[in-house]
Amino acid sequence: MTEPRLPLDPAALDPAADVTRAVEATLFAAAEPLSVQDIAAYVGPDIDVKAALATLADLYATRGVTLVERGGKWHFQTASDLAHILRREREETRKLSRAGIETLAIIAYHEPVSRAEIEAIRGVQISKGTLDVLMEAGWVRPAGRRETPGRPLTFATTPAFLAHFGLETRRDLPGIDDLRAAGLLDPVDLAFEAMELPETGAEAEELESDDDHA
Amino acid sequence: MTEPRLPLDPAALDPAADVTRAVEATLFAAAEPLSVQDIAAYVGPDIDVKAALATLADLYATRGVTLVERGGKWHFQTASDLAHILRREREETRKLSRAGIETLAIIAYHEPVSRAEIEAIRGVQISKGTLDVLMEAGWVRPAGRRETPGRPLTFATTPAFLAHFGLETRRDLPGIDDLRAAGLLDPVDLAFEAMELPETGAEAEELESDDDHA
Amino acid sequence: MAEQLVIDAFELPKAVDEDRLTVDVGSWEGPLDLLLTLARSQKVDLREISILALVDQYLAFINDAKALKLELAADYLVMAAWLAYLKSGLLLPKDPEIEPSPEELAMRLQLRLERLNAMRDAGARLMGRDRLGRDVFARPAPEGLRVVRKSLWDANLFELIQAYGHVKVRAEPPLHIVHQRNVLTLEEAIARVSRLVGAAIEWTVIQRFLPESDDPQFRKSALASSFLATLELARQGKIALRQESAFAPLYVRAA
């Protein structure tokens, strides 16, 4: 970290430096995070985009702006330790309800997960708006139907979820390894939950019909 | 420029580096160019914003993104020499319209030829778009004005036209006899052929002069 | 793990002491949420909570709520009944006939509370991360990357010369050439019919006057022109014509 390091300088006639500059400019100008393929479409197919990204990430690591990878897509963002300077009250994201936060966490840690499974963990039904809000925020998406009786629709998180919460991949979800080791992320046994707590069983049934007309 | 330079590193505990990072992040996150006062409102009043801006401008001078001042306001922008990278061309193959290919053929056989002459040969008017498409394709170019009343603009083919159609010179275009032999001129008209022959001779002459200024 | 579980960013009802549990039931998202709040008030790792103590806390809360004449949702009462059953099961001498055993049910309940608690903590930790647009920022107004559509026009040499051929053909003055055809002209037919009829007194069918030929086109032409010839000769009063009905054989004789 404290070793002297030469800045990339096109004057040094290093072809790699030109490539790095091109990738840097592309990411800087892009309206959305870009995958390696996206970048290659702009800078050219014969370019080692990954090497350029690694160089840039290293170059920016200690700067006020950093290069980050989120779900396989790259973008520049301000360094997190400078949040106190930049945090703006008016831009505060709309506060998510408690049900929304828990539902989001359950989807992220269990995905793909059906509505009935989310409800089994929370012990209450999800109101219609909760999933809508998460999908509207671009954090949650429908992820196909499960091939079990009733073919319930499942939900999963999106790349935008990873980008918003600063996660490179889902493996970076806080504490996910500990939770898995403790068996707390095992598939929810809906049948057993129904037997254990009678009222959840009634919920689960309602759920399926709910899924049908959803 | 080529002197080794230490990267800004907060671990080095350099207070100036922290200031520079703060100014960098502020400029990056701003929707508009910022004045020194604007920046000071974020990073604090006791900060030497100007010194930080000078450091940043120097740091970014050779990069894919540069720090620029316009009318007392500062912002980052992509390096101007990289503008060509930021737009990607998507090529779509499209079939030339019948009007397009007929017009191109007439120009190829009769060049230099005015629009009125093309229309006289085709027996139909040509839309402005037809010639535009041929010029966009790089096959046709304006070839000067004819010194006749009205000084009409004439058109001729380009070297790219020859290259695309696999022709060495325009003389490689099949003559009227070849077209007839290939059944491309039907019905047969002896009188027409007699009339046509001297014309082909005239064309061959024009061709040579054309080759000269091509 | 135990430290992590303490994180709680939610505005949970501040109901960890029983004096303040008499707030209305709407503060909790269902009986499980209330149970978890009570379990957390034991201030130990959830894996070490006393289920019996928890059941007592829950039942006490429900009783207080009823004393305050608060509307209690049915699911809270169902849970209370189930917990009362669980409590009696745990306290009474073991009955091996009962499946699953009360101990197992208690363990399952504990697991459910742990699961919910874990997700609640996970949600809080997610919300506490450096979030894009709140703590860290992307460029608000990037220039954007542009895709420029460029047409690659396609045409080949054959199409080019074929097109020129079409233009040439279209531009030519129209010239109609009638092929030489084997026909019997009207003049020839008149001469032939008047010569042959001159000798015939009997009614003779018109076909007898036609020249012999293997060419069907010529035979048609000969019939047509000979018919016209008989009409002309009849008009001149040189011959007479007879036909029984439309399309019936046409007979000719000298007038």
Plain-language structure description:
The complex is a heterotrimer, with two copies of chain A (214 residues) and one copy of chain C (255 residues). Chain A has 214 residues and is mainly alpha-helical. Chain A has two domains: 13-81, Arc Repressor Mutant, subunit A (Orthogonal Bundle); 98-193, Orthogonal Bundle (Arc Repressor Mutant, subunit A), CATH 1.10.10.10. Chain A is built from eleven helices and five strands; from the N terminus they run αααββααβααββαααα. In chain A, the strands form two sheets. Chain A has a three-stranded antiparallel beta sheet. A two-stranded antiparallel ribbon of chain A has the order 1-2. In chain A, a hairpin with a 2-residue loop joins strand 1 (65-70) and strand 2 (73-78). The longest helix of chain A is centred in the N-terminal third of the chain and has 15 residues, at 15-29. Chain A starts with 14 loop residues before the first helix and ends with a helix. With 255 residues, chain C is mainly alpha-helical. Chain C has helices spanning 2-6, 31-40, 51-67, 74-91, 102-127, 157-171, 186-197, 216-235; strands spanning 146-154, 204-205, 239-243, 250-254. Chain C has a three-stranded antiparallel beta sheet, covered by helices on one side. Chain C is elongated, with a radius of gyration of 57 Å. The N and C termini of chain C lie far apart (133 Å). Residues 1-23 of chain C have low confidence and may be disordered. At the A-C interface, helix 1, strand 2, helix 5 and helix 10 of A face helix 2, helix 4 and helix 5 of C.
